[in-house]
Design brief:
- The chain has a five-stranded mixed beta sheet with strand order 3-2-1-4-5, sandwiched between helices.
- It is elongated and about 115 Å long.
- It is α/β, with parallel strands linked by helices.
- Helices cover 60% and strands 13% of the residues.
- The chain has five helices and five strands.
- The chain has two domains: 63 residues, Helix Hairpins, CATH 1.10.287; 208 residues, 3-Layer(aba) Sandwich (Pyruvate Kinase, Chain: A, domain 1), CATH 3.40.1380.10.
């Protein structure tokens, strides 16, 4: 049985850890609201870009375009968005796991990773992936300019034929308690994803003419759309990270309280046993003197 000193030392250690986890929970909670607002602000822009491309494709018939042409998928690139720090539950691990799982299914001959966040970079490197670029600092507070840097990198590789498919793996923020890891193919674009319903309001604009032609318009709009996907994924991931860390630290703080209560009970029992033993020794000594 552990001594009272050992029990007290362990209880004090857990109390110190609890103070740290509680402080981290409060920090994550404070950052979450701002990150959540940032994620919500990017969604209307993304949807508007998506609808614009859908309208152009719908009015252009069977258009042939470099960003729409399907390739064999032998050389693929993944943009993996994680955090620079841990203690966020399964947030980082879930993103990396879905990339590894997808890679096993697509049977690509060459796979490269653009890592956004140190945790993803380290995990993918340990799994044997080729890291061609790393963006660590931008996950703390991503801007659209940061998304453009990543977008220009993949667009350049795609247009030059170095890459067949480009995927992005990130965590979609739904609620404070729910975050969903997602993997999207962002290049080439899938025309089926841009199909308009017959009742869509965009069909009302079927008489719009594009200058100089729809293909040239797509040359300018699709890169902006790709950048908006990346920017939205960055914002969603930041909000998800803070929510996941807040939940994980709240759980850790609660577990620490439970452990402290159990150790306190154990300490009191040990103290009571010690007092009882001392009393028994005093009584035994008194009886021996009679």
């Amino acid at each position: 049985m552990a001594s009272m000193r050992d029990i007290k030392r362990r209880r004090d250690s857990i109390k110190s850890t609890q103070q740290i986890t509680n402080a981290m929970k409060l920090v994550a909670t404070a950052k979450l609201q701002k990150a959540k607002n940032g994620a919500e602000e990017t969604r209307p822009y993304f949807h508007k870009m998506h609808d614009t491309i859908a309208s152009i494709i719908a009015q252009s018939g069977n258009i042939n375009h470099k960003y729409l042409e399907e390739r064999d998928g032998k050389n693929n690139t993944y943009i993996v968005i994680t955090s620079n720090r841990g203690l966020a539950g399964g947030y980082n691990n879930n993103v990396c796991k879905q990339v590894i799982s997808h890679h096993k299914e697509d049977e690509a001959e060459k796979v490269q990773v653009i890592a956004v966040g140190k945790k993803g970079r380290d995990a993918m490197r340990r799994s044997g992936f080729d890291i061609i670029a790393t963006f660590d600092k931008i996950v703390e507070g991503p801007t659209f300019a940061d998304a453009v840097k990543i977008g220009n990198e993949v667009l350049k590789r795609f247009t030059e034929g170095e890459v067949d498919h480009v995927y992005i793996s990130y965590t979609n923020f739904q609620t404070t308690l729910t975050q969903e890891p997602k993997l999207l193919k962002i290049l080439p674009l899938d025309i089926e994803d841009f199909a308009l319903d017959e009742t869509s309001e965009h069909n009302l604009a079927s008489g719009i003419e594009y200058d100089p032609d729809p293909e040239e318009v797509l040359n300018n709009i699709i890169p902006q759309y790709v950048n908006s996907i990346i920017f939205g994924a960055l914002r969603e991931s930041v909000a998800s990270e803070h929510a996941a860390r807040m939940t994980a630290m709240d759980s850790a703080t609660t577990n620490a309280s439970d452990m402290i209560d159990k150790l306190t009970l154990k300490y009191n029992r040990a103290r009571q046993a010690s007092i009882t033993q001392e009393l028994s020794e005093i009584v035994s000594g008194a009886e021996a003197l009679k």
